[in-house]
What does this fold into?
Amino acid sequence: MFPITQDIANTLYELDNLEVLRGINSNSIDLIATDPPFNTKRNRSGTAGFYVDSWKWGNIGLLPDQWQWNEVHPKWLETIQDGHPELFQVIESTKFVQGEDTAAFLCFLSVRLLEMHRILKDTGSIYLHCDHTANAYIRMAIDAIFGKDNFRNEIIWHYYNVASTSRKFLGRKHDTIFFYAKSKAAPFNWDDMREPYSPESNWVKASDSYGDPRYGPNEKGKLMHDVWRIPTINNMAKERTGSPDQKPLKLYKRIIKASSNPGDIVLDPFCGCATTLIAAKKLNRRWIGIDRRSDARYHIITRLADISKAERKRFEKYTTDKAWLDKQMQPYEMHYRTEPPVRTDNPTLAAANLPSVFLITEEFQMTRAEIHKTLINQFGPYCWGCNFKAPDPRYLELDHINPKSGTDDHGQHHINNRALLCKPCNLEKSNRMTLLELRRVNKRKGYMKDGVLADLSEVSKWTWQYLVKRIQEAPHQYSLNGI
Ligand SMILES: C[S@@+](CC[C@H](N)C(=O)[O-])C[C@H]1O[C@@H](n2cnc3c(N)ncnc32)[C@H](O)[C@@H]1O
Ligand SMILES: [Zn+2]
It folds into this structure.
């Protein structure tokens, strides 16, 4: 009844990527290769329009590339705190060590990475491009989201052709690309990852694996390492679009060759002037690009058309001219959308009117504080794990009845999966046990206070609507004792 595929290949979305990512079905993308803004606190401008390295709306105008803690949506934080405690710790630590701005940037990226993880197939991989400003923190966030065992490489892109100007430290001439697989099932085309033998390492010719003479030289070249020497695009190069953050095609072709096959879907949610998409197209992959920039479509069309440098100059005035762009787009098998896709793989989401915040359903919009208050009002200040009557509601913490229910679509944080616990119970339960298991342990260890407060098998079956109805019928009288 709900088709699990969506017809979104070869589409450019001109939107905030969070909205689009949330509309893409789970397990549907083969490869994500992307280069988000870096938190450099620099303005970036170029000849063909400019973009500001920021996640804020209103990218037209010279806003600095920076993130502020007060712009972090509280719902994002709550979602991370509830569903991904390790990731929450990473963000908290970042706040202490690096400061609020970097932590805010990490929140921005993390909510998107969670969606990227969801939409990748089990055989999918992700390559995330970062520079030195936040890469240590990003690495921890990806570990928390993808799992440290799915780490594959920290690729160093060495742009050796750029002169060093620094007199206080060494020239910073590399970016880092983190490569993670979603699972062990992700393919890797290792045999295609070769480069010519270098003259200075003659002895290496003898083998694929250094120093092991059992293997003869391979005529396709030697196996590549994780340091990639690729020059930045110079101003004379034909691929130069004028967009300030354009990355070399060679770099993204290499990534796409390594971790995808012809026909696969390659997604770049921060596609900029479309380097990933053009590389995917040249290698016969399907592509999906997302960028809020109004000139993203201009770049993909002019690059698909493979225009000369002179023509590029001539077309510059059409950068955001919709009629011109509509017309130029026609010969190409591509779609352009300014509305996000709607998920078709999940009946509750398929019809939903998705808000542009991270959370999905209405009931989920209750804040932690609201849920806490609702549960205390209804059930009194009791710990659900040991029946302890707290002298003050602040002794009770919000936890989950079942720590692992509905992880994919956040059903876990629904009020009907919530419990109030005292601190010792919360520590004991951690996120390993269900509430019933905790109660059994407490009973065995002698921590259970007298009286049974609730039939908890009943509690876990509640729906939000049921609870609201009961509260409306009997405000402030409904207690666990009464069930
Ligand atoms: C570093 S650039 C990507 C450059 C690209 N690799 C290329 O070679 O053209 C980052 C891009 O992310 C876009 N961006 C930033 N925040 C975004 C968001 N929330 N949604 C969609 N795009 C966003 C910016 O407009 C910018 O074009
Ligand atoms: Zn307790």
The two ends are 38 Å apart (CA to CA). Residues 16-17, 35-37, 51, 55, 59, 243, 245-247, 270, 272-273, 275, 290-293 surround S-adenosylmethionine (ligand 1) (CB under 6 Å). The chain has a mean pLDDT of 80.
